[in-house]
Task: structure prediction
Amino acid sequence: MSMSITNILVCGIGGQGVMTATEILAEAALSLGFDVKKTEVAGMSQRGGVVTSHLRFGARVLSPQIAPGDADLLVGFEAAETLRWVHMLRPGAEVLTNVGRIVPPVVNSGRYDYPDDPVAQMAALGLTVHAFDATAIALELGEIRLGNTVMLGAMADQLPFPDDVLEQAVLARFAKRKPQLLELNREAFARGRAAVAVAGA
Amino acid sequence: MAVVQPAPAHSRQFLSGNEAVARAAWDAGVRVAAAYPGTPSTEILEVLARYPDLYTEWSVNEKVSLEVALGASMVGARALCAMKHVGLNVASDALMTLTVTGVEGGLVIVVADDVGMSSSQNEQDSRFWGRFAHLPVLEPADSQEAYTLTRAAFALSEQFRTAVIVRLTTRICHVKGAVTAGEREVAEPSGFEKDPPRWVMVPGHAKPRLPLMFDREAALRDAAEASEFNVLEPGKDTRVGFVTSGPAGMHVLEAFPDAPVLRLGFSYPPPIERIRALAAQVERLVVVEETEPLLETELKAVGIDCHGKDILPRLGELPPSILAPAIGRLLRGEAPVEVARPAPQPVFPRPPTLCVACPHLGVYYTLSQLRNVIISGDIGCYTLGAGHPWNALDTCISMGASMGMALGMDKGRGEKDANKKIVAVIGDSTFMHMGMQGLLDITYNRGNVTILLLDNRTVGMTGGQDNPATGRDIHGMEAPRVDLAQLCEALGVRRERIRKLDPYELPTLFKALREETRIDEPSVIITDRPCVLIGEYKPTQAYRVIDDSCTGCGNCLDVGCPAIHVTRRGEETKPSGKVVDLAFVRIDTAACTGCGLCVQPCAPDAIVHAQNVQPLSFMRKSGSEA
Result:
């Protein structure tokens, strides 16, 4: 695959804002003049199913799909979902993950087990994992839907973007649609960014 | 839904394939656009409906949408209809004859194949319809091509006076990429011309038109040979040359940057001579097509030697991760060396679930308590009732099929099923799409079926579109609202056998189901509560579990609400010596919207209102996250 393409895989479950977050990432990449393609499988994901969103940007992007082993960054909105997709990463790539858990009915019914410690399991594979509790941060700020802005903040220092491009893309969206949420999102973004700095690797 | 002013021409926009098709249709001056929602094509009409200066509608089904578009074409207007792959099966009756009449105003049929089956009951290749109906097929490979080819489809349609099929796949519809749009063109409809030999398809009129259809197909073959949309991307590595179409074309370019690749944007009729010329330049020709070996078979029939489904999968998508090893094996005659990478980690499956507080939860909890029933199901969110913990849906085939199949079960059953009750479950929109006719068949033929008509006032699975029972049109504006109870009565169900119930009242629902299934005639139970993802749904105070009171009986888990979580498990030995499993629970009060379903089966009354907890919006629809 072309080395000039950046491949970012964002994962989570339906309703968490995975697609919206990736859309904002795409807008940021597009504003920098990159060719960008973004793909996901939607449809039934609205009902709490698995969601992945592939983002590829560079000089010219052909296939919209990231091949297994080619992702440069994996961003997980839910701990077990991050673990589900680690095989997509290239050697030496990094992982950003929320440690917050969303336990599905198949686990509650006792038919499957939730992994004991997804983050430790990823670290044991030799991956560089930045783990933090985006769900708790969002709830502290008073609205669980801020989780995706926290996640975007967490990505801020992991991307080949000039400083503040991503933050501007996030805030531009709220400035247009929901100005009353602007400050809250600014704070959520900053908290996500700080959380990764603290989490280290 | 407010009308938006589209972005200016020549600006660079980031559009999905569906959005690009919508923009192209608007730029082509489409006057009428119609569709029934269906993943992955739904957003085409959703987006078009926001544009000014055209008529858009949600039709009751795809056949009607095609007929609406055809009527508009007959009066000389440009028209579009959009549907998912299975929708064209429904519309095919009109399709197979409109190809005989031809069209007047440009008529474009956009059909989206769910290659990979993200949200469909089957995988099928709509390119067959081009062959079957002798219609041209255009296949974009990304959003920009979705724009360009949709616009070109209108011109082609009017040039050859034929409907044109634009074939998309999920990997076009839901992929976003940069698109530069052109200038908008608008033309006044030319007007209807009375011409019975053309428009009235009786044998005497249709017979002389059949040769015209074949002449048209031959002329289209020449057009495909000359088409600028069939592009040869040259390459120095001539060990393998590729001929491909749709999103697979981008995968081929990605995987084999040095190989000659002929990408067919105008894929039917196939430009055989262009392909023959490529075949002469390369050592091996490989056809990369999703999903059926259509082109491959046609090439072999005209004597062009090629590979295709002998080395590539017949099902699903063909991304570089599948293409590269397959071609490697072809060239070297052996499996390529696998690159070491982490193996997929075993993680529990996370199938789609019914939402927190979904009104269908009450229906399936109740159905799961009934014994000796066969439950004939249908297509929508409620198909999930087949899953755990309810296991309360026994069939799912096609839109509206629950009705006819239930009748067939009733009429066909023998001794083994003599004591079983037959229940059909169908949603409001599916009922109007294709279920009404089935119900009429049940009443007319004196079937013994109890019908659960789940009216959640929206098309839920595709993201909450309106339909004739919601009282709103595609713009969200007030529209005539059909009364489902009166409709069922008009279809022959006796008024006494039609009940409207609240699906959150479990005892009432259970009693009604038991009574109606014991009566030997058709009956309809309409459940009447809105989908939790639409504005009409009003969350109330959340519930919590009193830890000390929870006995671990697990009854609440049988409701299947995703807001109920197990905190610990245990075992208890009953006086009889029987060992039972215990599951102690908590309710995620941030997710709970207070529907109260779980409170009803709770044996120890351990579920109470959470004080001062207002429901948060998690799992509720937010903007475009559909």
Q: What stands out?
A: The helical segments of chain A are 18-31, 79-84, 105-108, 118-124, 134-140, 147-155, 165-177, 182-199. Chain A has a mean pLDDT of 90.
